[in-house]
Amino acid sequence: MSQERPLVSASGLVKRYGDFTAVDGIDFEVHPGEVFGLLGPNGAGKSSTMRMISCVSKPSAGELRMFGMDAATDGPRIRSRIGVCPQQDTLDPELSLEQNLTVFARYFGIPKAVARTRAAELLGFVQLQDRAAAKVDSLSGGMKRRLSIARAMINDPGLLLLDEPTTGLDPQARHLLWERLDQLRRRGVTLVLTTHYMDEAEQLCDRLVIVDHGRIVAAGTPGALIAGHCTKEVLELRFAGDTSGVAASLTGIGVRTETLPDRVLVYADDGDAAATAVHTRGIGARSALVRRAGLEDVFLHLTGRSLGDE
């Protein structure tokens, strides 16, 4: 981990909308060259935090510093040094892929010749060079997300912000986008991303915070969070009917259980042994699956709900 000054430093960060507090006094740092994740369900405060980091929304309280500057007073200077890939598609459908990049470059005062060179390089990077002259409307959802990332990189930013970068994409498109983001990581680009996909966070993030109701409930590397809050394995039991009374019959199997509407989770260091114990007791599960613990299990343990809950 780099010992350089953090690119982003938040202390007691708060965002209010009238009487509603979306972000409730959070502290975190983002270091140069790392991929930092904001993980949590919809409405947890992730997007509000990203809007403050992107300097389009001022903090209601607390301090947010980026590149050594105060986000509350140095917004224009900070914005010139960051790239933003928003959750919603903001591409211009009337322009070609190349034009989407070169026109956007004007906002940063980039000379036309430099903009064209960068556009060609970035379209190659996101594997869209063969579609440079095509209109945006001809692209698939995954292609549009890759183009949005290319556009966000046009000013050679020191920090790239990605808000739910793979929402709505099919698995193949998601994995291709992951590969491109991993390439950026290996180039030394600092990334901050929000997601409610647990596998995405485990795949991409060096460090992350889990937020719920505007507060940070856990922080660390994905591996450390899983090891610190979960057993090694999880036994997932699915039942044909109501699961509300099942937990009592599982007493003594595993370390703990979590009851969800469609399944019961048994946390154990040896999932196969737990499955054998369930079978021995004659507990009639429709199916049983042993898997390794993940970040969704961490969130469920800390908040009592799944990361995907609305």
Question: Characteristics of this structure?
Answer:
310 residues; 33% helix; four-stranded antiparallel β-sheet; single chain; alpha/beta; Rossmann fold; 26% strand; Alpha-Beta Plaits; globular; 14 strands
Q: What would you note in describing this structure?
A:
This protein folds into two domains: about 10-220, 3-Layer(aba) Sandwich (Rossmann fold); about 230-290, Alpha-Beta Plaits, CATH 3.30.70. The chain has about 300 residues and is α/β, with parallel strands linked by helices. It has eleven helices and 14 strands. A hairpin with a 4-residue loop joins strand 12 and strand 13 (about 265-270). It starts with 7 loop residues before the first strand and ends in a 7-residue tail after the last helix. Strands 6-7-8-3-9-10 form a six-stranded mixed β-sheet, sandwiched between helices. Strands 2-1-4-5 form a four-stranded antiparallel β-sheet, covered by helices on one side. A four-stranded antiparallel β-sheet has the order 12-13-11-14, with helices on one face. The model has no long low-confidence stretch (mean pLDDT about 90). It holds the Pfam family ABC_tran. It comes from Allocatelliglobosispora scoriae. GO terms for molecular function: ATP binding; ATP hydrolysis activity.
Summary of the model, kept short:
The chain has helices at residues 46-53, 75-79, 97-105, 112-125, 141-152, 171-186, 198-204, 222-229, 246-249, 271-280, 295-303; strands spanning 8-17, 20-30, 35-39, 61-66, 69-70, 82-85, 159-163, 190-195, 207-212, 215-220, 233-238, 256-259, 264-268, 287-292. With 310 residues, the protein is of the alpha/beta class.
